[in-house]
Amino acid sequence: MTDVFINRISVFLPNNSVLNEDMETYLGLINGKSSKSRRIVLRNNGIENRYYALDKQGNVTHSNADLVASAIRKMFEYNPDEIKDIDLLVCGTSTPDQLLPSHAVMVHGLLAETSNIEVVSHAGACCAGMHSLKYAYLSIKSREKHKAVCSGSERVSPIMKSTYFEEEISKLNSLESEPFLAFEKDFLRWMLSDGAGAFLVENHKNTNSLSLKIEWIELSSFANKLPACMYMGADKAQDGSLRSYHTMKLQEILCNSVLSIKQDVKLLSENIVELGFNMLKSLLDTKHVNIESIDYFLPHISSFFFQEKIYNIMKDNHIGIPYEKWFTNLKTIGNVGSGSIYLMLDELFNSGKLQRGEKLLLVVPESARFSYAFCLLTVC
């Protein structure tokens, strides 16, 4: 087994940043009216800017694969020929451009300058990017590969556009005088954004610049305990089970916006913090990590609504980390799902703040059916 290092990080954010007051210019008005829940959701989540792979007319400007390929090329901009040496490409996303072929092979298809290499896709939600990192980490650690690139990305904006809900609103218009989009569908329109990040993972550290040594990565699912909380391509039954779009007629899919992303907000608020951060306590004990040794804490939070809850439960579990050690760019970049941890780490890694020997703790909760990813890095 060999040590494993993140030696380079790059990101790609499409177009210009979008302010809160301009969101509906890009996403459109549902039934010709401004969303009633938009201001409430934005006030709670604390996001002020985000990026969309859309222009102001709602036209799509980039595919998800485009975003990732652009981030990867940026990582090799000073030595373009080096991209030929990649022997593993691992990509994670919640929002692939199509069901088949897989997301990662579509990214590979845009990187014609690479070789014929192993390519792996990870599906899921926010943890998909961390699953990609773990696969790259294990491949390098076992000496199966020597130069791996992993990524996390989302291109969710096209399925948040008002046109995506036209059939459902048309149906409601025929039944009600004041139709409105259900909160579990409207909620995520004001939470999510687009972007991609990529890591270069190798078995040696940089000689002339900083690297991040991967000490460990742990992932865990609580799907055996709880029903789905965030879902797409399905509807939720009263008993918590999901009914797949595969079992529905086309008109039912359209009239209920089944292909939109939905969130069970009550289930989310009751479980997302407690499950993951109680587990973090036992994990740190098992790994013999003293919380005082952590210099930077990077939690992927979908909303600042959860910040104080996380702080308090960590304090109650005797693993409290003061806010001055926290690092997040949620306010300025938004919630990019599986790409968020890449975007956070990129900003910190390239900030000039890090010093050799410092330790970074990454935490990525995923609400889809309650999964969590944890990672400890050492600056070297």
Gist of the model:
This protein has 380 residues and is of the alpha+beta class. It has twelve helices and 15 strands.
Describe the protein's architecture and organization:
This protein is α+β, with helices and mostly antiparallel strands and 380 residues long. The protein folds into two domains: 5-158 and 191-207, Peroxisomal Thiolase, Chain A, domain 1 (3-Layer(aba) Sandwich), CATH 3.40.47; 216-222 and 262-379, Thiolase/Chalcone synthase (Peroxisomal Thiolase, Chain A, domain 1, 3-Layer(aba) Sandwich). The chain contains twelve helices and 15 strands. The protein has helices spanning 23-27, 38-45, 64-75, 103-110, 128-141, 166-173, 183-186, 250-255, 265-286, 307-316, 330-333, 340-349, and strands at residues 5-12, 18-19, 49-50, 88-93, 118-122, 147-154, 195-202, 212-221, 230-232, 234-236, 242-244, 261-263, 296-299, 359-366, 371-379. A hairpin with a 4-residue loop joins β14 (359-366) and β15. α3 crosses α4 and α9 (265-286) runs parallel beside α10. The two termini are 19 Å apart. 43% of the residues are buried.
